[in-house]
Amino acid sequence: MNKFTSFSRHLDKVWLEQTLAWVAQGNDHATLNSAIETMLAGTVKTPENRRKARNLLVAIWAAREQPEFKPFDCAALALYHKAEQSSLVLQWGMLIARKPFFAAVARFIGRYSKLNSSFQSAQVNRRMCELYGETESTARATRAVLKTMQELGVLVKDNSGALFTASPSKITDADEINWMLKGQLMTDCQTSRALDEALQDPLWFPFDFTFNASQIANHWFELHQQGNSMYLFLKQDV
């Protein structure tokens, strides 16, 4: 099966935050596209690059009609209204859930950074080429994801070009963690996973949180003991 990067250019943090705000206001697709186009006009000069940025922002945050996605998307908006603002949790969680290529880059960085203090973009690109094919599209998408991560503040680049992970952000809200876990299963096309593995997944490198089985959202998940591990099962039709 062919794998697609679907990440054609980097996104500024302010674009992501503003797009979420417009979606949370209930704007339809036509209004959302028009608003994003106007927002981008001042900073993105060419129509082609504006189209790429607009389409990517819509793909990440616009409401989806498929019933299997609605609970997750609605929960994101509920978390937004609860906090009355965007957050790294919401942006990261939706990027992970809707963009598997972004999740693959995040997972590599998280795994590599556990053993190394810094890395080069070429190292990330080499791994993504192994997974997605050695093409210009893969290289371009990797650069776009890395720059987006820098925009979000989870990566820092020094004068030599080396990249470092920023200090992790603390999460204490169990609703946010449950939502992220659901998005994790969605991006990996899974319906179950060992709870410890899910919580320790390297793609959560921007965050610091503690979480236990008693905090699992029963409306989304079931927990079952299998051998020595507790497994998280996604309930159907939620």
Describe this structure in words.
The structure is a single chain. The two termini are 27 Å apart. The longest helix has 17 residues, at 136-152. This protein has 238 residues and is mainly α. Helix 5 (88-98) crosses helix 6 (100-113), helix 5 packs parallel to helix 9 and helix 7 (121-132) packs across helix 8 (136-152). The chain has 10 helices and 7 strands. The mean pLDDT is 94. The protein has helices at residues 13-24, 29-41, 47-61, 70-83, 88-98, 100-113, 121-132, 136-152, 174-187, 195-199, and strands at residues 155-157, 163-165, 169-170, 192-194, 207-208, 221-226, 229-234.
Helix and strand topology:
Elements lengths: L12 H12 L4 H13 L5 H15 L8 H14 L4 H11 L1 H14 L7 H12 L3 H17 L2 E3 L5 E3 L3 E2 L3 H14 L4 E3 H5 L7 E2 L12 E6 L2 E6 L4
Parallel strand pairs: 3-5
Antiparallel strand pairs: 1-2, 4-7, 6-7
Helix pairs in contact: 1-2, 2-3, 4-9, 5-6, 5-9, 7-8
Secondary-structure content class: mainly alpha
Q: In what range is the share of β-strand residues?
A: 5-15%
Mean pLDDT: 94
The side-by-side strand order for the widest beta sheet comes to: 4-7-6
The main sheet comes to: 3 strands, antiparallel
* Count of strand segments: 7
Shape verdict = globular
Number of helices: 10
Ranges where pLDDT stays below 50 over 5 or more residues in a row are none
Based on CA atoms alone, the radius of gyration comes out at: 18 Å
How far from one another are the termini? 27 Å
H/E order of the elements?
A: HHHHHHHHEEEHEHEEE
Helix content: 40-55%
